[in-house]
Automatic annotation (TrEMBL):
Reported cofactor(s): Mg(2+)
Record-listed E.C. numbers: 2.5.1.-
Cellular component GO terms held in the UniProt record: cytosol
One record GO biological process: polyprenol biosynthetic process
Function: Catalyzes the condensation of isopentenyl diphosphate (IPP) with allylic pyrophosphates generating different type of terpenoids.
Residue sites binding Mg(2+) per the record: D16, E203
NCBIfam families: PRK14830.1, uppS
Taxonomic path: Bacteria, Pseudomonadati, Planctomycetota, Candidatus Brocadiia, Candidatus Brocadiales
Keyword NAD: no
UniProt name for this protein: Isoprenyl transferase
Active site, per annotation: D16, N64 (proton acceptor)
Entry binding sites for substrate: 17-21, 29, 33, 61-63, 65, 67, 184, 190-192
Amino acid sequence: MAKKNKLPNHIAIIMDGNGRWARRRGFMRVKGHEEGVNSVREITTECAKKHIGQLTLYAFSNENWKRSKTEVNFLMRMLKKFLIAERKTIEDNDIILKTIGRTEALPDDVKKELSISMKESRNNRGMILCLALNYGGRTEIIDATKKLAADVKKGTLKSKDIDDDVFKKYLYTSGMSDPDLLIRTGGEMRVSNFLLWEVSYAELWFTSVYWPEFRKKDLEEALKDYAKRERRFGGLIE
Ligand code: IPE
Ligand code: IPE
Ligand code: MG
């Protein structure tokens, strides 16, 4: 029997559809990113209130550098503004801020604000808010493999000892649980290089709602559906 009212411990979201939301209204694409921040605040606060263990948000992918310089610059400036403006939201909701991705390639001023926010929230006790920044699932696996190969070469790791748990320790998400629920807004039904290793048994929820319009009621809908799912992990339910 499906367990009712069960909340996912870890929710991951591909926040898509900002550009289309804006174009629909005759605005520039970047206006959609601006509006999307309001969804981030509402969904983050809501998840923290529900005592969700972790919320991982796909904010910028390895591939998003392909966009125009104007859009990339706008996104970076917005990220910096977000980090400064939402310190109070993070504090008020007892949130611990973390990141995954090649954050070393982000602009220096963004990195500075990131490190301040992470340091400030380090001793909080509530939900983990993990921002995927310059993140790619394949890059994550490659970065892990490089570190792992170096340890094998050094002799601190034997290749015969490599298993799922050992490999996981080399990923950006080391120490984090895998997502139970993956949400993608904006209508596309693809994972776009997000958490490739980690979503192997996640429940998927796709909605055509654009991210700037995705709010509490949409989250409730996804959670209601999740509660009805029967997770078998390849086994059988008695
Ligand atoms: C998602 O919205 C935000 C980022 C990828 C940074 P998009 O900008 O991809 O919006 P669409 O998909 O073009 O509508
Ligand atoms: C995925 O959205 C990346 C983020 C939400 C940050 P994209 O808009 O970049 O994905 P594609 O290009 O539609 O696959
Ligand atoms: Mg998109």
